[in-house]
């Protein structure tokens, strides 16, 4: 998830249908102008690769025109790493969710240039997409790379990785499917480990309390490069649905 994005967390009152409470936004939508090329890609490629949240629950085999493992990434930023993965692993189908329109435009433009047919895109809030469009038990992998860390303690409640979110992800994964997270903030890595280790129905792929080595198929993103320049480490966490 890029730091430009915006999703929302439900409060317990909302999720149980009780009195409405405001949602807690897990990150802030950063404004940005689209280039001419990005705008053109939105106009020409969105009808081919774009997915609309009001279309309801997806038939993934129909969406992609084939049966294949589905990898979903929340917050792909400018989309470069998602393009790289889709190009390197054509046997997978990829769904990207991103609310930053210039990033969506860039991804669509690059997907067209690379001739990729295994990517589909939502430009919408990830929490709503998961609830309304992604069938339970349908995903082989869900990726959340470098979400906004909300490093100030008073903002920790805005972090997207929370117990309710872990349960939502578990429902969307197939048995044996993997929730793969990465962050360059050690405190957030510890938070992720605490939440996911306590979440029912998961197994830490690397072993209890252990971080995973960065898999060779996960590209180094610009957020990772920036974090490394600032002296941050990088932590990957991979939890399998049991």
Automatic annotation (TrEMBL):
<feature type="compositionally biased region" description="Polar residues">
    <location>
        <begin position="8"/>
        <end position="17"/>
    </location>
</feature>
<feature type="binding site">
    <location>
        <position position="148"/>
    </location>
    <ligand>
        <name>S-adenosyl-L-methionine</name>
    </ligand>
</feature>
<comment type="pathway">
    <text>tRNA modification; N(7)-methylguanine-tRNA biosynthesis.</text>
</comment>
<dbReference type="Pfam" id="PF02390">
    <property type="entry name" value="Methyltransf_4"/>
</dbReference>
<feature type="region of interest" description="Disordered">
    <location>
        <begin position="1"/>
        <end position="20"/>
    </location>
</feature>
<dbReference type="GO" id="GO:0008176">
    <property type="term" value="F:tRNA (guanine(46)-N7)-methyltransferase activity"/>
</dbReference>
<feature type="binding site">
    <location>
        <position position="125"/>
    </location>
    <ligand>
        <name>S-adenosyl-L-methionine</name>
    </ligand>
</feature>
<keyword id="KW-0489">Methyltransferase</keyword>
<feature type="binding site">
    <location>
        <position position="98"/>
    </location>
    <ligand>
        <name>S-adenosyl-L-methionine</name>
    </ligand>
</feature>
<feature type="binding site">
    <location>
        <position position="73"/>
    </location>
    <ligand>
        <name>S-adenosyl-L-methionine</name>
    </ligand>
</feature>
<keyword id="KW-0819">tRNA processing</keyword>
<comment type="function">
    <text>Catalyzes the formation of N(7)-methylguanine at position 46 (m7G46) in tRNA.</text>
</comment>
<feature type="binding site">
    <location>
        <position position="184"/>
    </location>
    <ligand>
        <name>substrate</name>
    </ligand>
</feature>
<dbReference type="InterPro" id="IPR003358">
    <property type="entry name" value="tRNA_(Gua-N-7)_MeTrfase_Trmb"/>
</dbReference>
<feature type="binding site">
    <location>
        <position position="152"/>
    </location>
    <ligand>
        <name>substrate</name>
    </ligand>
</feature>
<protein>
    <recommendedName>
        <fullName>tRNA (guanine-N(7)-)-methyltransferase</fullName>
        <ecNumber>2.1.1.33</ecNumber>
    </recommendedName>
</protein>
<keyword id="KW-0949">S-adenosyl-L-methionine</keyword>
<dbReference type="InterPro" id="IPR029063">
    <property type="entry name" value="SAM-dependent_MTases_sf"/>
</dbReference>
<keyword id="KW-0808">Transferase</keyword>
<comment type="similarity">
    <text>Belongs to the class I-like SAM-binding methyltransferase superfamily. TrmB family.</text>
</comment>
<dbReference type="InterPro" id="IPR055361">
    <property type="entry name" value="tRNA_methyltr_TrmB_bact"/>
</dbReference>
């Amino acid at each position: 998830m890029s730091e430009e994005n915006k999703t929302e967390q439900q409060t317990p009152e909302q999720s149980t249908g009780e009195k409405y409470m405001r949602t807690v936004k897990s990150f802030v939508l950063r404004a940005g102008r689209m280039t001419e090329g990005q705008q053109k890609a939105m106009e020409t490629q969105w009808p081919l690769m774009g997915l609309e949240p009001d279309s309801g629950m997806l038939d993934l085999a129909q969406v992609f025109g084939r049966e294949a493992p589905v990898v979903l990434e929340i917050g792909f930023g400018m989309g470069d790493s998602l393009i790289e993965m889709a190009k390197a692993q054509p046997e997978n189908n990829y769904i990207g969710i991103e609310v930053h329109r210039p990033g969506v435009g860039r991804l669509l433009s690059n997907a067209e240039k690379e001739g990729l047919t295994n990517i589909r895109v939502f430009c919408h809030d990830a929490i709503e997409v998961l609830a309304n469009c992604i069938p339970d038990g349908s995903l082989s992998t869900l990726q959340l790379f470098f979400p906004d860390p909300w490093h100030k303690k008073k903002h920790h409640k805005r972090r997207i990785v929370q117990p309710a979110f872990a349960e939502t992800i578990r429902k969307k994964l197939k048995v044996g499917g993997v929730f793969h997270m990465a962050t360059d903030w050690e405190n957030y890595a510890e938070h992720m480990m605490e939440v996911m280790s306590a979440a029912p129905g998961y197994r830490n792929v690397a072993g209890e309390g252990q971080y995973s080595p960065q898999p060779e198929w996960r590209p180094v993103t610009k957020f990772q490069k920036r974090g490394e320049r600032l002296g941050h480490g990088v932590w990957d966490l991979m939890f399998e649905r049991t």
